[in-house]
Amino acid sequence: MLNLTYPYKLKLTQEQQQTYEAWLETSRRVWNYALAERKDWYKSRAGSIDRCSLRGEYVIPADAPRPTFSSQCKALTQARKVYPDLGAAHSQMLQQVLRRLEKAFVSMWENGHGFPRFKKPGRMRSLLFPQLGKTPVRGNRVKLPGVGWVKMRLSRPIPEGFIVKQAQVVKRASGWYVMLTLQCDVAVPDITPHGEALGIDVGLSNYLATSTGELVPRPRFLVDLQSKLRLLQQRASHKVKGSNNWRKAHHKVAKLYERIRNGRQDFFYKLAHRLCDGVGMVFAEKLNFQAWARGLFSKHTLDAAHGEFLRILKWVCWKRGVFYAEVNAKGTSQICPSCGTNTGKKDLSVRVHRCPECGYTTDRDIAAAQIVMQRGLAAVGQTVKMLGEGLSVGSP
Ligand SMILES: [Zn+2]
C-alpha cells in the first residue's frame, strides 16, 4: 500500500471561508481546553502527598484518571450536544484535534519534545478530515465537509489507481490549500538492495555529507531568508497588538515563512534526486531526536527539517527504484571508516577525522557518512569494503 500527499490551492467562496475560519477557531478552543485539562491533571500530581499543593488538590481528586484521547473524545461528544459552536463543527475533524494533542504528548514522552503549548488566536491553521465521501474529487472540484464542492487549482492530476483517503485544509498567508492523501491499494513490489551504495550524514555545519566525499552546504538563500525572517519578526513584535500595522507586519512574516518552507522543500527534492543519480542503495542514519533534544542543538530547526528531508528522500528513492534504509547512527563519528578503529568521542568543534592507527584523514561528517554506508551494507548482508589504508576521500 502506498500513500501520497498532493497539495492543491483552493478557491473558497466568502461563505466557505467563513465556515472554515469558524471551525479553525473552534478547533483552537478545543485544543486549549483539552490541553488545560491535561495540564491541570499533571499539576495536581506534581507534589508529593504530604506537601500537597492546595491549588491542584481541590480541583482534581486523587483518584481521577489521567485524561486520554478516548476520555477526551467522550467528553467532546457530550459537549457538542450543549455548545452550538462545537455542534456546528465537523465531529471527526474535532476528534483529530484531540488526536494531534495526544501525539504532541507522546512525542514529548518519547522524543523529549517540549510540553505542548496553548494556541493563540489565529494559530490554529489546519483542519484534518480523516474521511471523505465517495468520489470526493470530480474534475477540478473537491467535496469537503461543511462547505460542499470547492474549486481547486488542479496543478497535477490525481494518478491512476489512487483513491482520496483524507483531506487536510490549511490556511496559509497566500490563501487556502488542501492536502489530499491519496492511497493506492495495489501491492508495490519491494525494491531490493542492488548497485552502488551511498551513505549520507545530515548535520549542522554542513547540510549533508556523503560517503563519496561530497559536502552539501546549507543553501545560502535559506540562510539569508532566515535572518530576514528574524528581522521581520522583531519588527512585528514592536507593533501595537491588534493594530493595522501589527496585522500587516504579521502578514509579512507569514508570507516570508511560507516562501522559506517552499524554498526548502524545493531544495530537498532536488537534493534527493541528485543523491539517487547512479546509485542503487541509499543509507541514512536513523535520527535520534532524544539525543538532539538533550544536546546543544536547537531542536526546532533540526528535527522538523531533517525529518522532512529524510521523508522526501525515502519517497524519491522509492520512485526512482533505489533501495533506501536507515541505520543506527550511534557512534558514527567515533569509528574510523578505513580500519574500523574506535578513535573515541570527538568534540563538536573537531571537524576532521584523523585516525591514529591508519592515518586516514577526512572531514568528520564524510567519515560518519562512510560508517553509515558500511553499516547499511552490513544490514542488507553485503560485503563491507573497508576504505583501505591511506586512501583519502574528500578534502580534509
Ligand atoms: Zn583508521
Brief descriptors of the model:
single chain; 396 residues; alpha+beta; 7-stranded antiparallel sheet; 10 helices; 44% helix; 18% strand; globular; disordered C terminus; binds zinc ion
Structure description:
The chain has 396 residues and is of the alpha+beta class. The chain folds into 2 domains: 1-188, no CATH class; 197-379, no CATH class. The chain has 10 helices and 14 strands. It has helices at 14-46, 54-59, 69-82, 84-88, 91-111, 220-238, 244-276, 289-294, 299-320, 364-379; strands spanning 2-11, 126-129, 137-138, 141-144, 148-153, 163-172, 175-184, 197-202, 208-210, 215-216, 281-285, 323-327, 352-354, 361-363. The protein has a 7-stranded antiparallel sheet. A 5-stranded mixed sheet has the order 10-9-8-11-12. The chain has a two-stranded antiparallel ribbon with strand order 13-14. α1 (14-46) crosses α5 (91-111), α6 (220-238) runs antiparallel to α7 and α7 (244-276) packs across α9. The relative contact order is 0.11. The model is unreliable at 53-58 and 389-396 (pLDDT under 50). Residues 336, 338-339, 341, 355, 357-358, 360 line the site of zinc ion.
**Number of separate domains:** 2
Bound molecules: zinc ion
Strand order of the largest sheet: 2-6-7-1-5-4-3
Write down how many β-strands occur, each being a DSSP E stretch of 2 or more residues.
14
Largest sheet: 7 strands, antiparallel
Q: How much strand? A: 15-25%
| Unreliable segments of 5+ consecutive residues | 53-58, 389-396
- Compute the gyration radius: what is it? 25 Å
Mean pLDDT: 85
Label the structural class.
alpha+beta
Helix-strand string: EHHHHHEEEEEEEEEHHEHHEEEH
How helix-rich are the residues, as a percent range? 40-55%
Distance between the termini: 44 Å
How many helical stretches?
10
Envelope shape:
globular
